[in-house]
């Protein structure tokens, strides 16, 4: 069995790993796993297998929900970020729902910061292996069974009867604001707090179980903002700027391309990531079949449009030509 430090060191070696071509879900990680598909969880498997930690992360998975549920079943899961440490595996739900069943993405925690953010090492983020700083849309984390790993926090991150502490005080204060519950803000989750929470859950059409978990927390955040439904998270794409013409297709180039496609009527959410909708919008713009798959025919059509060599391979030359066209406003 390996260590958290070994897991992180192996993940750092993969930084900059790309898809070939972008949007294809194909690289040496997916080849190692055995099929081309969304590869964020495959990256965790790859890193673990190459740092003697595959059993520590509970085996080989390609599905984010599957490994997260395995962590939960093994008693090694925590909702939210309370007690998170480097080496933990953190899971995201971009819809903001906060459920394991809704998990979309995963990363390896590299560092934990005093301002409430974490630095992660993530595969399949904007079609690359990248370092990210995260705070939002986090469902929770799993703690692998590394050699010398710290014990799990004493709670699973959910507030229920007999919970205590500052998180309970915050909940009681929020229930007083949203529901006029007139609770004593004492940090003890007793029967009065449970009744007030159930009233809140009933009002907002949640499961009325008296347990304050991710769904109730998402709804509370919305209710405090005067909303009647959870607030969807907003993407934080790179700001518009003149591109560095370096032949590297990263989030900044992708976001610039999405903005250019929107100028032609695509109506994309600019997030700096090559998903199926971006692929289809690009295919429409270059005149290839709109199947959402970035294959050789689409790449040749793109290369023809931007004046690159038409070899069906999206490499640095193709990206360089695209960046030049985007900077010139002629794409």
TrEMBL record:
<dbReference type="InterPro" id="IPR036366">
    <property type="entry name" value="PGBDSf"/>
</dbReference>
<dbReference type="InterPro" id="IPR038765">
    <property type="entry name" value="Papain-like_cys_pep_sf"/>
</dbReference>
<dbReference type="InterPro" id="IPR002477">
    <property type="entry name" value="Peptidoglycan-bd-like"/>
</dbReference>
<feature type="domain" description="Peptidoglycan binding-like">
    <location>
        <begin position="164"/>
        <end position="220"/>
    </location>
</feature>
<protein>
    <submittedName>
        <fullName>Endolysin</fullName>
    </submittedName>
</protein>
<dbReference type="InterPro" id="IPR007921">
    <property type="entry name" value="CHAP_dom"/>
</dbReference>
<dbReference type="Pfam" id="PF05257">
    <property type="entry name" value="CHAP"/>
</dbReference>
<feature type="domain" description="Peptidase C51">
    <location>
        <begin position="32"/>
        <end position="124"/>
    </location>
</feature>
<dbReference type="Pfam" id="PF01471">
    <property type="entry name" value="PG_binding_1"/>
</dbReference>
<dbReference type="InterPro" id="IPR036365">
    <property type="entry name" value="PGBD-like_sf"/>
</dbReference>
